[in-house]
Amino acid sequence: MALPFLPGYSLNRNVGKEKFHKPQHWGFCNNVRMLMNEDKPGIGGELCLRQKRKPKYSAFLKEMGIDAPPWVAFDKQVLSFDAYLEDEVPEKSQENYRIRRYKIYFYLEDDTIQVNEPGVRNSGLPQGTFIRRHHIPLPPPDEDQFYTVYHFNINIDIVFYGWKFKIYDCDTFTKIVLKNMGVKLNAPGQCPEDPYLKMRREKLDFVKPLRPYESFGTLKQFLNYDRKVLRFFCLWDDSTSLFGDRRELILRYFLSDDTIEIREVLPHKSGWNAMPFLLQRGKLPKYGPPGVYQPGEITDRIVLNVYGGLVENRVDGYLLDKYKLGKVHQEFYKDSDLSIGTTINVWGRKVLLCDCDEFTKSYYKTEYGIENFTSIDCKPPPPPKIERKFPPYTGFGSEEDSLRSCIGLVPTPHRKNFRKWMEKDSYGYISNTLRFFAKLITHDCADVDRLFVISYFLSDDTLSVFEPIERNSGLTGGMFLKRIRVKRPGQEVFKSELSEYIKAEELYVGARVNVNGYLFLLLNADEYTLNYMEKHSDKFPMSSIELALQKLKKQESKSEELRNVFIAADDEQRKMVDYNTFRDILMTLTVGELTDHELITIARHYRVPEDAYEDVNVLIALAHERFKRNTFENFERLIANCVYQDRENKKVLPTKDIRRLCKSSRLPLTHDLLVSLLSKFEDSEGQINYESFFCALNWRINPVPELEPRSYLKERCEDEWLGMPSPIPVKYINYVKLLKEVFGLEDE
């Protein structure tokens, strides 16, 4: 049976008798006691980790009169020591050891130590943190204890994990703290110089070529002129060479380093390859190309080799030649060499400076006092226009198709003006067709009285002629000329140029038009044609009222005679005459100064507005005709709506309410007809008796006789009654207004 464990007896034979074996979990229990802030000895009499690492500064703090724990009193206070280490370098003939400098930091709050190595340029060694911050134990046999502040001083050796550091100095704060703690400081020492670095520095100092020193002051120029660029617009005329051309360039001069960059401005579809630079940024020599130089021949400094002699330990060196013997001198373009009108040499290319930007002008004006900046035109002269000649028309096909076969190897169809066709094609009530009534001018008795309708289509400038069918005339009538473009008379048939065709501007009332050998006299035009020509009076001068009145003003001497004739023709003193009388008077007075179309323009301008619905019975008859055509019979509902709106039971409503009710009920009446009907039933207060109004419109209860066709007044042309199928342009003309505005004659 085993004996119980006794104090002082060790189960481990390798441990002395003064100690005994302690299980590992006892140490764990001691650390738990540390976390519980217990300062009593642990199990087995061992000190816990806090007791081992607790700084011994209690007496020092009491002397300083500080009543605080050390980790509070010494918070963020670090001692800094300068040290070096001799690092052996085996297997290298140039050096046996290196001197490596270090910084040792001691943190007073918890006695932790950190070792850093400052960075040395081009050392090739891993530098920075050499030993991270922690408690460093003392070297054996005291490895169970840690370094404190009392282990540090100046000019002593200290060992960290086998590395022997030599402390030779510290900072001022460290010296003050150590003196206050009672540490007697040694005299500071010196860090020995690394032999290899000393040898390397001596060699570099000896072979350094910059003696005597010569400065190149480019920094000031860079700081003053950085981002300041002069820009010139240039021209390189290479048209004299084979396949050469005139090339437009942009030259940029950088003031910061006197370099030049040239870019090329390529026009659209020029055929040249788009290169980013014609000349990359660099200094431009004045006399280029200068030739090929050997490497090292172009340099800023001249260096001489220094021979050390025939001694055993000779040292060869270099020396800067201040006389610069054998130096190749090159002249480069400066800002003073550039001006408008100057030709510069760009590696054998003659470039002319034509213009510059505003910044460049202000720079030269400030620096050099230049005022004249007259630009030179760098645009090439226009190339000579070569007239292309085509063979004459052969007579096969149309002229346009024959011409297309001469333009390309593969004939293509003639392209029509599609935009004009889309804008001028007929749509809705807009026909874009000019229609004229015409007669045939001929000496044949059978064709003298023939009338035609000439239609001109604005979409494609085509023309058609139609003859109205007249019974028992002995003529067939119908289509006289199908829709085609009509050539102007007197043109050569077989020629190289395209033929000219009749345009819309050539058509007006009274004009003579030759249509394929048939001569027509334009007698009249429809309402749409007259309105269109007056709207576009800039293209149709015969429809311009200003031009027509200017011709009439030339007869100012006959103004009194003209007024007397108008008054004599106005038997009823209504201050207006009919169109035929008006035409006869002006034609007799002007003696051919005015054309028929200009006369129609004046008559339309001074016409008397016609009341198309003079009689209320005519208006009601027209309304009944539209109601019958659309089978509209909802008059009782309309009266019921009016009764609902008539809250005061006055049997009348405002005209605007009746009009709104008719519009909302969609009465099949035009706007003009509805307004005319409402005006006939409206009283002096602007109100309408709705019962009488809708009862009059009720075609079932109050029918009215049907309208008889109106007889239109026919126009006389050239003193002959032609029996035209169209009415006259206007019915009555206000001659009083005409005399007042044209001649300034007031009504007597």
From TrEMBL:
<keyword id="KW-0969">Cilium</keyword>
<feature type="domain" description="DM10">
    <location>
        <begin position="430"/>
        <end position="537"/>
    </location>
</feature>
<keyword id="KW-0966">Cell projection</keyword>
<protein>
    <recommendedName>
        <fullName>EF-hand domain-containing family member C2</fullName>
    </recommendedName>
</protein>
<dbReference type="InterPro" id="IPR040193">
    <property type="entry name" value="EFHC1/EFHC2/EFHB"/>
</dbReference>
<dbReference type="InterPro" id="IPR006602">
    <property type="entry name" value="DM10_dom"/>
</dbReference>
<feature type="domain" description="DM10">
    <location>
        <begin position="75"/>
        <end position="182"/>
    </location>
</feature>
<keyword id="KW-0282">Flagellum</keyword>
<feature type="domain" description="DM10">
    <location>
        <begin position="226"/>
        <end position="368"/>
    </location>
</feature>
<keyword id="KW-0963">Cytoplasm</keyword>
<dbReference type="InterPro" id="IPR011992">
    <property type="entry name" value="EF-hand-dom_pair"/>
</dbReference>
<keyword id="KW-0206">Cytoskeleton</keyword>
<dbReference type="Pfam" id="PF06565">
    <property type="entry name" value="DM10_dom"/>
</dbReference>
<comment type="function">
    <text>Microtubule inner protein (MIP) part of the dynein-decorated doublet microtubules (DMTs) in cilia axoneme, which is required for motile cilia beating.</text>
</comment>
<keyword id="KW-0677">Repeat</keyword>
